From TrEMBL:
The lineage of its organism: Eukaryota, Fungi, Dikarya, Basidiomycota, Agaricomycotina. It comes from Naematelia encephala. It holds the Pfam family 2-Hacid_dh_C. Gene3D superfamilies: NAD(P)-binding Rossmann-like Domain. The keyword Nucleus does not apply. InterPro entries: D-isomer_DH_NAD-bd, NAD(P)-bd_dom_sf. Signal peptide: none annotated. The keyword Amino-acid biosynthesis does not apply. Residues 151-322 form the D-isomer specific 2-hydroxyacid dehydrogenase NAD-binding domain. This is D-isomer specific 2-hydroxyacid dehydrogenase. Keywords: NAD, Oxidoreductase. GO terms for molecular function: NAD binding; oxidoreductase activity.
Length: 359
């Protein structure tokens, strides 16, 4: 493949001037439309697209309009929304166009979010922050205790030392989280779709993650009932970072929460359709159930006004912001630059989304 074959780029994400200049050195023509409003007449010339999670802009309605397009590089790790575009369901679309995620860049934000929320839940910070901010008054231990749920929980913090974290999904986010958790003397176990260790061959920011998959002391499979049950039964801290696919939708049901050890905490940064809100609330309200939950993604999303999860004393809600960080689209453009260099060198793409699997 020659450089000329990939000379025209469309950028539909807001990047810095210096990153745009870097892209301009790599491509003959760069159409920069951060508002995703690309004039119809240039669609036919575009070889490569760099877009947000939505994928192709609204005026791309058929494959015929984009005959030269070979790569759709997303700024997001999740490809579920981009894959719903009818253009990608036309015959031959996936032979012509490779869709690639920016999985790997969120190691800059989500693992630190996960660690922060585990610590917050283990220290019962959600109650203390809430009382201080709402009342602007120094709460007594009794004040705090009163706001804790009646299910036997108390203000004393729980030490992380010696606990087991179960990483549900062992991709980029989970691997970097595993690396950070080791500093707390936490045992790490992982569940993926086949229960075996694999090397991370995607985009990796140097110094992050667990490339060879050697951190977990054991691997489990979500496709094997007994294995999944054993995984859950050991997970004091259940951390979900799964893509949304037909297999992961409503994967965690009421009975799965019942398999967790008493006093477990649940963190979800993947997608909200992993577990129904009513099942999470039932687990939180059971005397033998969850000690806490931190949810960056919810069912439904957005959560409707007044939803009980917002004010549940054991819950921390963030509105799907754990992945945001300063310079995230520039980081996505670094993935694009690495991909284009691979394309030109005739090497396979990284983070290639399998349209059948959905990630
Ligand atoms: N909250 C946010 O702002 C935010 C930001 C970025 C990403 N996300 C979400 O987080 C997800 C993961 O991101 P990532 O960068 O870590 O992705 P990744 O590197 O592609 O990892 C995905 C992981 O999910 C596992 N998986 C897929 N289907 C599974 C199943 N049925 N059972 C068990 N494991 C399964 C994969 O395992 P195997 O293929 O090896 O089985 C892989 O380990 C994204 O897809 C997105 O939905 C959310």
């Amino acid at each position: 493949m020659t450089a000329q074959k990939f000379s025209t780029l469309a950028v539909c994400a807001n990047i810095s001037k210096s990153k745009l200049d870097e892209l301009k050195k790599e491509f003959h023509t760069v159409h920069y439309h951060p508002d995703a409003k690309i004039p119809d007449e240039i669609l036919k010339d575009i070889d490569i697209w760099f877009t947000r999670y939505l994928g192709f802009p609204a005026n791309v309605k058929s494959l015929e309009q984009i005959p030269k397009t070979r790569l759709l590089q997303l700024t997001s790790a999740g490809a579920n929304v981009a894959l719903t575009n009818p253009v990608l369901h036309e015959k031959g679309a996936h032979n012509q166009i490779s869709v690639c995620s920016a999985s790997g860049i969120h190691t800059m934000s989500i693992p630190q979010y996960i660690i922060a929320q585990i610590v917050n839940l283990y220290m019962k910070h959600q109650i203390q922050f809430h009382l201080c901010r709402t009342n602007a008054h120094w709460p007594t231990r009794q004040d705090i205790q009163q706001d804790l749920p009646a299910s036997g929980t108390n203000l004393s913090s729980l030490p992380l030392y010696g606990k087991t974290a179960g990483l549900l999904g062992y991709g980029h986010i989970a691997r970097e989280t595993a690396r950070l958790l080791k500093a707390f003397n936490v045992t790490v176990i992982a569940a993926n779709s086949n229960g075996s260790k694999r090397v991370d061959d995607g985009y990796i920011i140097p110094g992050t993650g667990d490339i060879d998959g050697s951190i977990p002391s054991a691997y489990y499979s979500t496709n094997d009932k007994a294995s999944f049950k054993e995984f859950l039964s050991k997970s004091d801290i259940l951390i979900a970072s799964l893509p949304s696919t037909p297999q992961t939708q409503w994967l965690l049901k009421k009975e799965h929460f019942e398999h967790l050890p008493k006093g477990a905490v649940f963190i979800n940064v993947g997608r909200g359709n992993l577990a129904k809100s009513e099942d999470i609330i039932a687990a939180l309200d059971s005397p033998y159930g969850l000690e806490g939950a931190a949810l960056d993604v919810t069912d439904p999303e957005p959560l409707p006004d007044g939803h009980p999860l917002f004010t549940h004393p054991k819950v921390i809600i963030t509105p799907h912001t754990s992945g945001d960080f300063v310079g995230s689209f520039d980081a996505g453009a670094d993935v694009l630059l690495a991909q284009v260099r691979r394309l030109r060198a005739g090497q396979p793409l990284m983070n290639l989304v399998d349209p059948q699997k959905g990630y």
